[in-house]
Recover the amino acids of this structure.
């Protein structure tokens, strides 16, 4: 690895770029909400169990989003609502990644 890359590598910075005061406050708020019992339980799980739990939470969030979308648009079937939720998620991810790449 060249030393020229060390100065621009965000993992080597004392404070990663893009962390403003608002972001620091959001992180502090999220940390304050951590349930220590849940965190300790997570440490007892195998990596496979943690992945399963994460996927389970993602599926639950997806179902809730699809249900709410169907309430707003009753003409959608369950499959159509899930597809729309997934497409919106992918579009949001693409938008965030583009903002990250352009650093805006």
């Amino acid at each position: 690895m060249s030393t020229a890359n060390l100065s621009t590598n965000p993992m080597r910075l004392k404070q990663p770029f893009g962390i403003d005061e608002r972001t620091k406050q959001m992180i502090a708020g999220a940390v304050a909400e951590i349930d220590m019992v849940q965190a300790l339980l997570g440490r007892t799980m195998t990596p496979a169990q943690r992945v399963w739990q994460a996927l389970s939470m993602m599926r639950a969030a997806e179902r809730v989003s699809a249900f709410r979308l169907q309430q707003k648009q009753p003409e959608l079937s369950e499959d159509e609502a899930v597809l729309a939720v997934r497409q919106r998620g992918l579009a949001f991810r693409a938008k965030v990644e583009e903002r990250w790449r352009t650093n805006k």
